TrEMBL record:
Primary enzyme class: oxidoreductase
GO process terms (BP): diaminopimelate biosynthetic process; lysine biosynthetic process via diaminopimelate
Top-level lineage group: Bacteria
Official protein name in the record: 4-hydroxy-tetrahydrodipicolinate reductase
Ranges of residues in domain Dihydrodipicolinate reductase C-terminal: 113-236
Pathway given in the UniProt record: Amino-acid biosynthesis; L-lysine biosynthesis via DAP pathway; (S)-tetrahydrodipicolinate from L-aspartate: step 4/4
EC number: 1.17.1.8
Matching CDD domains: DHDPR_N (cd02274)
Organism: Pseudoscardovia suis
Compartment(s) of residence: Cytoplasm
HAMAP family: DapB
Pfam family, one: DapB_N
Active site (UniProt): 134, 138
């Protein structure tokens, strides 16, 4: 069965790459390629099975709510999601229980695995910090991936009854990064980079560093296509994280 895929944000850097990936996939066909200013109500169950939404945080929620209202499954690669936004999507799905929304903080399988390993390591180390590094055209900081990683690590530490991370810094001045769930997260924006994340763990006399590097947008495409193929498996629900489909 061929999956009919529409792409919203098709003229963006990631969206254009998704269009190419869908056109190259043997089990998919490109239905519609829409961008800013286009009418999303063109997308209906009559022409689309799954929509891939890759835009910007300022418009993503509105796009997803519109697409849910159109009665189609949605795969979202835009970052910037909060609990409040996720709750709004959940409420919208209550009126469309046959459809689902999947949101990935990151589609790179290497990054998803690094996050999985970080959750396992978190309970064994006194200290942990996250450094995410991206190109200077990225609009959000810290990245949605880094924020999600921080939450995962914090949950693992809480489950293991770990104490707060030691930090005797007296004056911050902004140099200690954003604190996410008790984890310091640092953002670097540098020309020549694409998407990179390091999770640094420390104990007395030892260090563990987990690093995932995406050198090209093509690294995200296997994850995007995997999510498209699984779209609709959790009807009426919002699923967050590609790990849900990697059998970890």
């Amino acid at each position: 069965m061929t999956i009919r895929v529409s792409v919203v944000g098709a003229k963006g850097r990631m969206g254009a790459t998704v269009v190419g990936a869908v056109q190259s996939a043997p089990d998919m066909e490109l239905a519609l390629a829409l961008d800013a200013g286009d009418d999303l109500t063109q997308i209906t169950p009559a022409n689309t099975d799954v929509v891939v939404e890759f835009t910007v945080p300022a418009v993503s929620l509105s796009n997803v709510l519109t697409l849910v209202g159109q009665g189609v499954n949605v795969v979202v690669g835009t970052t910037g999601w909060t609990d409040e936004k996720l709750a709004q999507v959940g409420e919208a799905l209550a009126a469309h229980p046959d459809n689902s929304v999947f949101i990935a903080p990151n589609f790179a399988i290497s990054t998803v695995l690094a996050e999985h390993f970080a959750a396992q390591a978190a309970r064994y180390f006194e200290s942990v910090e996250i450094v995410e590094m991206h190109h200077p055209n990225k609009v959000d900081a810290p990245s949605g991936t880094a924020i999600h990683t921080a939450h995962v690590i914090a949950a693992a530490r809480k489950e293991a009854s770990m104490p707060p991370i030691p930090d005797n810094t007296q004056t911050d001045g902004g140099s200690r990064g954003q604190v996410v769930d008790g984890i310091h997260v640092h953002a670097v924006r540098l020309r020549g980079l694409n998407a990179h994340e390091e999770v640094l763990f420390g104990n007395a006399g030892e260090q563990l560093v987990l690093r995932a590097d995406s050198f090209d947008r093509s690294s995200f495409m296997p994850g995007v296509l995997l999510a498209v193929r699984h779209a609709g498996e959790n009807p009426g629900k919002v699923t967050v994280g590609l790990d849900a489909y990697l059998e970890l």
